[in-house]
Amino acid sequence: MDESTIDLCGIIQQAFNEKDVDIRTYSPLTLAYIGDAVYEVLVRTHVVLKGNMPANKLHGISSNLVKAATQAKLSELLFEDFTEEEKVALKRGSNSKPNTKAKNASMGEYLAATGFEAVMGYLYLTGKTDRIIELVKLGFTKLGEIK
Fold first, then answer.
1. Is residue 2 predicted with pLDDT exceeding 60?
2. Start-end of H helices in 4-105
3. CA 106 to chain centroid
4. How much is the pLDDT for 1?
5. CA–CA separation, 66 vs 39, rounded Å?
6. Catalytic residue IDs
7. Which residues contact 58 (CB under 8 A, 6 or more apart)?
8. What is the pLDDT of residues 73-86, one digit of tens each?
9. How far apart are alpha carbons 130 and 100 in whole angstroms?
10. Cβ-based neighbours of 33, under 8 Å, separated by 6 or more
C-alpha cells in the first residue's frame, strides 16, 4: 500500500472553493469537533478492514475504541510522542470549557479525550493525515489493539 499522504481536508477545501483559514484561530472545541469525526472514520475503517461482520459487532468494537476513556488513555500513552505543536493543541483541548460531558466518563477523562480530539482536528485541518495515522497506529499498538 502506498504510504503517501492524502490531504482530504485540502481536497474538500479546493472542491468547495473554501478560503484558506488560520487554524491557530480556531477554538479547541472546533478542533475537537472535527477531530472526533476524523478519529471515528479512522477507527471504523480499521474495524471494517478486519473483516466482514454484522453491524452490531462492528459497532461494539468501534465503540470501545472511540469512547472517552479510550481517547483519554491514548492522549496519556502518546503524550511523549506528540510534537510541541501537538501538545499545544492537546493542552488547549484539555483546558477547554465544554458545555457537555460524556455519559460514561469522568470529567477528567472527557477533557483528556477532548484534548486528543483537538490534536486529531488540528492535524486534519493542517493536512497531516500521515501523522494522524502514525499516532493512532502507535496508540493502538500501545493499547494492544494491534500487534
1. no
2. 8-15, 28-48, 55-66, 68-78, 84-94
3. 19
4. 41
5. 8
6. 36
7. 44, 47, 48
8. 999 999 999 999 99
9. 31
10. 117, 121
Give the C-alpha separation, 101 to 2, whole Å. Answer: 39
pTM over 0.90: yes
The per-residue pLDDT for range 109-140, each reduced to its tens digit, is 999 999 999 999 999 999 999 999 999 999 99
Q: Which residue has the cell 469537533?
A: 33
**Percent above pLDDT 70 for the chain:** 97
Specify the amino acid at residue 94. Answer: S
d(CA 2, CA 24): 30
- CA–CA distance, 143 with 123 (Å, rounded to integer): 21
Question: What distances in angstroms separate CA 24 from CA 21, 113, 120, one per listed residue?
Answer: 9, 20, 14
Q: What is the mean pLDDT of residues 100-106?
A: 79
